[in-house]
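Task card 7
Instruction: Convert sequence to structure tokens.
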Amino acid sequence: MRLLGRVVIGVIVAVAIYLIVDFSGRVWAESYVANEVQHSLGLSAKPDVTFGGPLFVPQLLSGKLSSAKATASGFTSGGISFASADLNLEDVDFSPGNLLFHKDSTIVAHSGHGQISMTSKQLSDAFHQQGVPINVRFLDDGSVRISASQFPATATVNATIEDAKLVLRPTKEPFNRFSFGLSLPQLVPGMTYTGVTFDPALGTLAFRLDDATFSVPASP
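Output:
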């Protein structure tokens, strides 16, 4: 019985050590990948990265993650300011050796989805930066109105995604012959914008990921 008790205690200690190592490895890897994602995507702020799955070490050694999530707030990319971003990555492949030894590496998410959000001021500023002199306002009912300093009137617009652009088009004739387009940044190769929605505070752009690739440069 005494021997059995020692074996049980030994197993408990070994499991505890493994869980500590697993937790520490997860924390280190999440922080490291967050730094590299920031540099890879050209973000002005470091995102928060979390890995899915109950245990991290087996996934690290295999070079495959079932899922990962990255979130960021108050950042700029491609000269455009955003309020927040959420990336949900699935079926993620990477080189464990390159990651551990900080060598040039590529992280590929074979599928995923996410969204980025902007305030009306951020959206207006983005249009201005691309030479489109309109101001955007989000209304309580989810509709969007635009105005321009040289025109006294305002117009309600429909918003669509066309060829990686956010396109605003007046709803009423004859102004619906005109449209205003904003080129959207591709945060990562393999990203496709799929839709846009609005509430009184934010405009939210949805996207999907297909073989999204994050390049991780070597570091000393």
